C-alpha cells in the first residue's frame, strides 16, 4: 500500500502526465506566458462547464473575493454578512477593504450558514451576503436569494470548495455553485477539486456590466490600455496554469464521482458509529466532497489525530479556532459563547483523507485504525 496523503497530487498528475506535459510545453514554446490563448480557452471551457455566460480568471481565490467586492462598489463601513465557520480569506478581504464583517452561526449538521439567522443580522448598513459552500455542497441559496431580493443586497458566493456542485430550486431549475448570486468566486489552489500547479482563481457572473467591471478592476482598473477609469489591482491567471486547468477540467466530473465513492465507504463505516456523526447531505445540493468531515463525540479529537499520525494516516481540522476568536478578528460584538455552533464544531470536527486517488485498501486501513483507537478509548474508561 502506498503512503496515504490528504490529497495525493502526485498520483493525480501521473494519470494525466502526458497531457499535462504537452500543454505546458505548448505554452513554453509559444513564450506567451501572460494572457496566452490557453487563458481564453480555459475561460470558454469553464463557462461551458458551469453554464454561465461570463468567467474572469484571476491570480487566486482571495483576489477573486476582493475584486468581486470592489466591482460591487462596496464602501467603507458597509456591512457584509458571512458565516463564522469558514477559512479566514472570506473575512480577510472584507476587513482589507474597510468593510465590516457581520458573522452569523452555521448549521450543526451540514456546517453551512444558518439562513434563519441572516435576516436578524441585516441592518441599514448591510450591503452583501457571502454564503460559503463549505466542504463541497451548496448553502441554502433559494432562501439567501429571497432575502437578498427582499433587502436589496448583493450575493457573492464563495465556492472555492464546491466547484461542480449543483443546486436545485423548488421550481426544478438547477444551477452550478457560484453561478446563482451576483458573483461567484473560486480558487484553483492545487488541493482544490479543480486545482492548478500554483495559484489561480476565477469569478463568474451572469451580468454583462459586472463582467466588464470585474475585468477592468482585475487589470489595474483599465479597460483600454493606459486609460485607468478606477483603482484596480493586478490579478491574472498565468498561461501555464490555464493550460493545466484545461487538462484537469476534462477529468473533473470523473474525479467528483470518485470522491463520492470514497465518501460512501466512509459513510458505511461511520453512519451508526457511537463516536462519530457523518456529514449531512443537503437535499437541494449535490456534494463534491472537497473534504470528508466527521464530528467526534465521546472521544478526544486531538488524541485521535495523534494516534492516526503515528500510523502514518494524515488528518486535518478545518477549522481549529473560530473566526471571531482569532486575534485579528476579535470584536466586542462576538465574545466567547456568541456563536456556539461554530465554537462547538471547531472542537469536534476532523477531516479524513479525501481525493479521487484514495484506494479502497487505504480506506480500510484508515477505518480500521480509527475503530481501534475508539476501542482503546472505550476500554480505558471502564
SSE arrangement:
Elements: H1 9-15, H2 17-30, H3 37-50, E1 54-58, H4 61-71, E2 79-83, H5 89-96, E3 100-104, H6 118-121, E4 126-129, H7 141-151, E5 154-158, E6 166-168, E7 174-176, E8 183-187, E9 201-205, H8 208-218, E10 222-224, E11 227-228, H9 239-249, H10 252-270, E12 276-277, E13 292-296, H11 301-310, H12 340-346, E14 349-352, H13 360-381
Parallel strand pairs: 2-3, 2-4, 4-5, 5-8
Antiparallel strand pairs: 1-9, 6-7, 8-9, 10-11, 12-13, 13-14
Helix pairs in contact: 2-9, 3-9, 4-5, 4-8
Task: Give structural notes.
With 382 residues, this protein is of the alpha/beta class. The protein has two domains: 9-105 and 114-249, Aspartate Aminotransferase, domain 2 (3-Layer(aba) Sandwich); 252-381, Aspartate Aminotransferase, domain 1, CATH 3.90.1150. The protein is built from 13 helices and 14 strands. The protein has helices at 9-15, 17-30, 37-50, 61-71, 89-96, 118-121, 141-151, 208-218, 239-249, 252-270, 301-310, 340-346, 360-381; strands spanning 54-58, 79-83, 100-104, 126-129, 154-158, 166-168, 174-176, 183-187, 201-205, 222-224, 227-228, 276-277, 292-296, 349-352. It has a seven-stranded mixed beta sheet with strand order 1-9-8-5-4-2-3, with helices on both faces. A three-stranded antiparallel beta sheet has the order 12-13-14, covered by helices on one side. β10 and β11 (227-228) form a beta hairpin. α4 (61-71) crosses α8 (208-218). The radius of gyration is 21 Å and the shape is globular.
Amino acid at each position: 500500500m502506498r503512503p496515504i496523503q490528504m490529497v495525493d497530487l502526485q498520483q493525480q498528475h501521473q494519470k494525466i502526465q502526458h497531457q499535462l506535459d504537452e500543454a505546458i510545453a505548448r505554452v513554453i514554446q509559444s513564450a506567451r506566458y501572460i494572457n496566452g490563448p490557453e487563458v481564453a480557452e480555459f475561460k470558454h471551457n469553464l463557462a461551458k462547464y458551469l453554464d454561465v455566460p461570463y468567467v474572469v480568471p484571476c491570480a487566486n481565490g482571495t483576489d477573486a473575493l476582493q475584486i468581486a467586492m470592489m466591482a460591487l462598489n462596496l464602501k467603507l463601513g458597509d456591512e457584509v454578512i458571512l458565516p463564522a465557520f469558514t477559512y479566514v480569506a472570506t473575512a480577510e478581504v472584507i476587513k482589507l477593504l474597510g468593510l465590516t464583517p457581520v458573522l452569523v452561526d452555521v448549521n450543526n449538521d451540514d456546517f453551512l450558514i444558518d439562513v434563519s439567522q441572516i435576516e436578524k443580522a441585516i441592518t441599514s448598513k448591510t450591503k452583501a451576503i457571502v454564503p460559503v459552500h463549505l466542504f463541497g455542497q451548496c448553502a441554502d441559496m433559494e432562501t439567501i436569494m429571497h432575502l437578498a431580493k427582499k433587502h436589496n443586497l448583493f450575493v457573492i458566493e464563495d465556492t472555492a470548495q464546491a466547484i461542480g456542485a449543483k443546486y436545485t430550486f423548488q421550481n426544478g431549475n438547477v444551477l452550478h455553485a457560484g453561478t446563482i448570486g451576483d458573483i461567484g468566486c473560486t480558487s484553483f489552489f492545487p488541493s482544490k477539486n479543480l486545482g492548478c500547479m500554483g495559484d489561480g482563481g476565477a469569478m463568474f457572473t451572469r451580468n454583462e456590466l459586472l463582467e466588464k467591471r470585474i475585468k477592468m478592476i482585475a487589470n489595474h482598473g483599465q479597460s483600454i490600455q493606459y486609460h485607468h477609469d478606477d483603482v484596480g489591482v493586478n490579478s491574472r491567471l498565468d498561461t501555464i496554469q490555464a493550460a493545466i486547468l484545461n487538462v484537469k477540467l476534462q477529468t473533473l466530473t470523473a474525479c467528483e464521482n470518485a470522491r463520492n465513492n470514497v465518501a460512501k465507504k466512509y459513510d458505511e463505516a461511520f453512519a451508526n458509529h457511537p463516536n462519530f456523526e457523518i456529514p449531512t447531505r443537503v437535499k437541494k445540493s449535490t456534494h463534491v466532497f472537497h473534504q470528508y468531515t466527521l464530528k467526534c463525540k465521546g472521544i478526544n479529537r486531538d488524541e485521535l489525530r495523534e494516534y492516526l499520525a503515528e500510523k502514518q494516516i494524515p488528518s486535518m481540522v478545518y477549522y481549529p479556532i473560530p473566526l471571531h476568536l482569532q486575534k485579528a478578528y476579535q470584536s466586542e460584538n462576538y465574545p466567547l459563547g456568541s456563536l456556539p455552533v461554530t465554537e462547538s464544531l471547531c472542537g469536534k470536527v476532523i477531516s479524513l483523507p479525501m481525493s479521487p486517488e484514495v484506494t479502497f485498501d487505504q480506506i480500510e486501513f484508515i477505518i480500521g485504525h480509527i475503530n481501534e483507537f475508539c476501542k482503546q478509548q472505550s476500554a480505558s474508561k471502564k
